[in-house]
């Protein structure tokens, strides 16, 4: 999940990474844009995802959230899975 609108630099980067991962692992990787609230909507989406998905993307999103708003990363990290 990308916490910003399609077409922005972070979206383009995420799509390039997804393409590379798809080629490396022979699996489809998709980019799901969830803009709004400075990335918090995407962070909540990951927090509510199944545990297997959380392990893959949660660390990255929490790191980005902490850099932007320290309280969000702390809350997500301390709450565990929902």
Structure write-up:
The protein is mainly α. It has one domain (9-79). The chain is 65% helix and 0% strand. It is built from 4 helices and no strands. The protein has helices at residues 9-25, 40-47, 51-68, 70-79. Helix 2 packs antiparallel against helix 3. The two termini are 17 Å apart.
Total DSSP E strands: 0
Number of helices: 4
Averaging pLDDT over every residue, what do you get?
A: 75
> Which of globular, elongated, flat, extended, rod-shaped describes the shape?
flat
Q: Which ranges are low-confidence, i.e. pLDDT below 50, for 5 or more consecutive residues?
A: none
Keywords summarizing the entry:
82 residues; mainly alpha; 65% helix; flat
Write a brief structural summary.
With 82 residues, the chain is mostly helical.
List the topology elements.
Blueprint: H1 9-25, H2 40-47, H3 51-68, H4 70-79
Helix pairs in contact: 2-3, 3-4
